[in-house]
Each structure stands twice: as C-alpha cells, then as structure tokens.
C-alpha cells in the first residue's frame, strides 16, 4: 500500500475509450417503447432529438467505444482528475478503513457532468446542428452543457426548474457567462409550459416539466437537438472515464476496493465510477460490494417500482423500463437538486434487478452533517448530491471502527458545493428539515403509470 495522499495521472493517461457495460451483461435491458405505438423505438424515432452518433451509442454492444480526438482535446482541460485518500477524514473518524475519493469537482463547471456534455456537443456540432436545448434542476447540467456548447460554437437554451432559478441565481449567471439562454420552467415560450402556467401561475416546476419544454423546442426545429445529462446509456458510457482512471489510480495506491459507493439521481456518476470495476469483478479480478445511495425524499430504487414510465411529465419521451416513482411525482424540495428525478437509468435499473449492486436511502440532514464533516477534514465542500455517498461512507467507516475491519472504500466526489452555500447555511443554523415521504404520495403517482 502506497503512503501517497493523491495519485495524479499524466495527461497521456486520459482513457482512449469509453467502456460499454452492455457488452458484458448476461441479458440486455428491455428496450425503450414508442409513447403512442408502444413498439420498441428505432433510430428514426429518436433522430429529431439526438444526433446519429449518440443514437448508435445508445444501442451499441461494442465493449469499448473510442473517444474522438476532438473530445480528448477538451477533456485535457481538467482530466485526468485526482484520486485522493481521505487521510484527514479517516483520522477524524478514528477508523481503520481506508477511504478514497475520485474528485470530479475540478472540471470547468464543477461536477462530473462535462464528461458527457462535451461529447454530446461534439457529435451534434459534427452533424451540423446549430442549437442544443436541455433542462436543468440544480444547475450543474445546464452549466456543463453551456460550457460544452461554447467550446464547439453551438447555441444553448436551458429550461431551469423555477424553484432553482429563484434559489440559485449564480448557477444561472454562470450559464449566461458561457453564452446560454436560460428560461425559468415552466415558461411561456413552450405550449407545455404555457398550459401548466395557465393552471398554476406559481408552479415551482420540476425536472419532468423542464424536460418536456426542452424536448418540445428541439422536436420543432431542424437545426436543434436535445441533450440529457443523465439516465440514458450514452450518458453513462461517457462517464466511465471516471472509473477507468480510478482503476489505474487505485492500483497505483496498491489497493483493490472492498466497497464502492456513489450517489444516484439518474445514475450517471455512480455508473461512471462503478462500471469499470464491475467489469473487473465479472472477470473475477476483484470482488467489491457496490452500493448506490439515494435521497429518502426521492427513493426510486428503494421505494419505486420497476415498470415502463415516461421520462418527462407531459409524456413526450419514449417509455423507459426503470425504477420509477411515477412521472407525475414531484419530490419535496431537498437541496440535492441533482437527485430529484422521478426515474432512474434503465440500464442501472436492469442491473439492480439482476442483483449487481445494492441501494440505500439517506435523509437530508445526515447528508449535510457528512458534508460538513468532510469539508472540515478534507477541505473540499461537497455538492449536496455526493454528501449522500459521504454519509454512507462515514457510516461504513464507523462500522469498521467497531469491528476493526480495514476496509478499502472508494467513492465519487462528483462535484463541489460552492453554489450551494446557502443550503449549508440553512443546515448550520438548524433550519433544514428531513422530509417524510408518505406512501400515499408514491401510490398516487404510480397510479398514473402508462399501460405498456
Ligand atoms: C447531476 C448531479 C448528480 C446526479 O446525477 P447522476 O446522473 O445520478 O450522477 C449528482 N451529483 C452532482 C454533483 C451532479 O451534478
């Protein structure tokens, strides 16, 4: 075992391929279905929304997908990212466990999201597309896509969930600095948004509504496509650069992981870290336990159902077989905005059904407590989303303290919390609440599941 604290890789060690776990699964996940015909969707159905190359990646079963030079050129701005041993946190906890975190907060927009925003913008630009539309909740995805569009000269239009638009003016400003146009969602510029505003002029919005707006605009213009920051296979594929680097770095530390922990909203940072390790596990080279952590206020794995559902509120998207709380479910306003999505990646949902990893849920306040503890020990203020993973890591490290076990724990610190300090303020002044999610709310939303 190395006595290093950080393993930094040379620029030449940026992975040259993304890893496609579809090549190694015992069975493929159920296909997306057309929202009206209920037949599996084909490339032509998706062409108004995504460029051909991303549609091909969505269904590809090639084990490795080469990363184009035009993408590597931009990845070099911040990749490889460091793998850091949390020695100060270990000491503060008094644990014999060894804790490692892959830090993705050093990207231009401060999270793992540019790992996929960059290739998505790249493939659209290469196909001659002029404008991308998207939604954003907490603002991390919108910022990442705005940054990526600026790199390739694309226009970028973002529908930002109203509640965040009002609470997080600085994320909005950052998107504008990168050149994007930002709308509060629901907005009057789409027919979906206008309809919702007519019913409730003060609607706080939701990710599902914002997706409907961005999809409506992209589907209505030839030179415009839509970009999604999580959930889809091609997004998870792009994020595997995280795990590929971490594999090499952890080996340089002289370690193999016993436990891998990640937070899950749509599942992309978790998959990005875990998939290359799952490949090694399937090949019999290591045997880590893998655990997803979701918020108790939006528990799609632990309390949702595995069924075909829409990805958005209005029902424009294909039906996806996934762990879902129902497309009409609007989660309570927890501060981990990136984890407030009713559904889950269909690929991860399928793997969860196959028993390839486990999932737990954590409450908001214990997560902020973990975030503060981590910041005081390690110096980095985590985004509210990865504090869910940190709460689990800390609980596990304390269990190791009881048992004396020297577990090797690996997690993804997928973003910094510099734009979330008002949430930390609320936690520190005791104003933050946990939300009890009554079963009726889940049942009500699940009653609106489409019949597949
Ligand atoms: C978007 C986001 C998430 C949630 O999305 P996943 O696809 O589940 O990773 C988590 N953490 C951060 C920092 C994010 O920006």
Automatic annotation (TrEMBL):
<dbReference type="InterPro" id="IPR006316">
    <property type="entry name" value="Trp_synth_b-like"/>
</dbReference>
<dbReference type="GO" id="GO:0030170">
    <property type="term" value="F:pyridoxal phosphate binding"/>
</dbReference>
<feature type="modified residue" description="N6-(pyridoxal phosphate)lysine">
    <location>
        <position position="113"/>
    </location>
</feature>
<dbReference type="InterPro" id="IPR023026">
    <property type="entry name" value="Trp_synth_beta/beta-like"/>
</dbReference>
<dbReference type="Pfam" id="PF00291">
    <property type="entry name" value="PALP"/>
</dbReference>
<keyword id="KW-0663">Pyridoxal phosphate</keyword>
<protein>
    <recommendedName>
        <fullName>Tryptophan synthase beta chain</fullName>
        <ecNumber>4.2.1.20</ecNumber>
    </recommendedName>
</protein>
<comment type="pathway">
    <text>Amino-acid biosynthesis; L-tryptophan biosynthesis; L-tryptophan from chorismate: step 5/5.</text>
</comment>
<dbReference type="InterPro" id="IPR001926">
    <property type="entry name" value="TrpB-like_PALP"/>
</dbReference>
<dbReference type="InterPro" id="IPR036052">
    <property type="entry name" value="TrpB-like_PALP_sf"/>
</dbReference>
<keyword id="KW-0822">Tryptophan biosynthesis</keyword>
<dbReference type="GO" id="GO:0004834">
    <property type="term" value="F:tryptophan synthase activity"/>
</dbReference>
<keyword id="KW-0057">Aromatic amino acid biosynthesis</keyword>
<keyword id="KW-0456">Lyase</keyword>
<keyword id="KW-0028">Amino-acid biosynthesis</keyword>
<comment type="similarity">
    <text>Belongs to the TrpB family.</text>
</comment>
<dbReference type="GO" id="GO:0052684">
    <property type="term" value="F:L-serine hydro-lyase (adding indole, L-tryptophan-forming) activity"/>
</dbReference>
<dbReference type="GO" id="GO:0005737">
    <property type="term" value="C:cytoplasm"/>
</dbReference>
<feature type="domain" description="Tryptophan synthase beta chain-like PALP">
    <location>
        <begin position="77"/>
        <end position="415"/>
    </location>
</feature>
<comment type="function">
    <text>The beta subunit is responsible for the synthesis of L-tryptophan from indole and L-serine.</text>
</comment>
<comment type="subunit">
    <text>Tetramer of two alpha and two beta chains.</text>
</comment>
């Amino acid at each position: 075992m190395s006595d290093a604290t950080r393993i930094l890789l040379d620029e030449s060690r940026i992975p040259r391929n993304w890893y496609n776990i579809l090549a190694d699964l015992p069975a493929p996940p159920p296909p997306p279905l057309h929202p009206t015909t209920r037949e599996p969707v084909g490339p032509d159905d998706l062409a108004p929304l995504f460029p051909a190359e991303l549609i091909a990646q969505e269904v590809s079963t090639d084990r490795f997908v080469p990363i184009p030079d035009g993408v590597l050129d931009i990845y070099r701005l911040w990749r490889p990212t460091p793998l850091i041993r949390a020695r100060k946190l270990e000491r503060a906890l008094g644990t014999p466990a060894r804790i490692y975190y892959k830090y993705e907060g050093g990207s231009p927009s401060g999270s793992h999201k540019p790992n996929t925003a960059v290739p998505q913008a790249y493939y659209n630009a290469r196909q001659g597309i002029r404008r991308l539309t998207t939604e954003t909740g907490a603002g991390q995805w919108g910022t990442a896509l705005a940054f990526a569009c600026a790199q390739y000269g694309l226009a970028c239009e973002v529908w930002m969930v109203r509640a965040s638009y009002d609470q997080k003016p600085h994320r909005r400003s950052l998107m504008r600095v990168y050149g994007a146009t930002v709308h509060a969602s629901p907005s009057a510029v789409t027919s979906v948004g206008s309809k919702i505003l007519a019913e409730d002029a003060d609607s706080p919005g939701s990710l599902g509504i914002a997706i409907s707006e961005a999809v409506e605009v992209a589907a209505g213009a030839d030179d415009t496509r839509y970009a999604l920051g999580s959930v889809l296979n091609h997004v998870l594929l792009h994020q595997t650069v995280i795990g590929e680097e971490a594999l090499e770095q952890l080996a340089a530390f002289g370690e193999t992981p016993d436990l891998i922990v990640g937070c899950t909203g749509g599942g992309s940072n978790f998959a990005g870290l875990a998939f290359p390790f799952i490949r090694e596990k399937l090949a019999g080279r290591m045997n880590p336990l893998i655990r997803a952590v979701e918020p108790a206020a939006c528990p799609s794995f632990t309390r949702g159902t595995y069924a075909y559902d829409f990805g958005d509120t209005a029902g424009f998207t294909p039906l996806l077989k996934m762990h879902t709380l129902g497309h009409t479910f609007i989660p309570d306003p927890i501060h981990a905005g990136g984890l407030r999505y009713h559904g889950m990646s269909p690929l991860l949902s399928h793997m969860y059904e196959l028993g390839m990893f486990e999932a737990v849920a954590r409450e908001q306040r214990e997560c902020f407590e973990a975030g503060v503890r981590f910041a005081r020990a390690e110096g980095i203020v985590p985004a509210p989303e990865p504090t869910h993973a940190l709460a689990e890591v800390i609980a596990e490290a304390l269990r190791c303290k009881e048992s004396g076990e020297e577990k090797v724990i690996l997690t993804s610190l997928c973003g910094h919390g510099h734009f979330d300090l008002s949430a930390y303020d609320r936690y520190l002044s005791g104003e933050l609440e946990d939300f009890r999610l009554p079963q009726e709310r889940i049942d009500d939303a699940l009653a609106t599941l489409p019949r597949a």
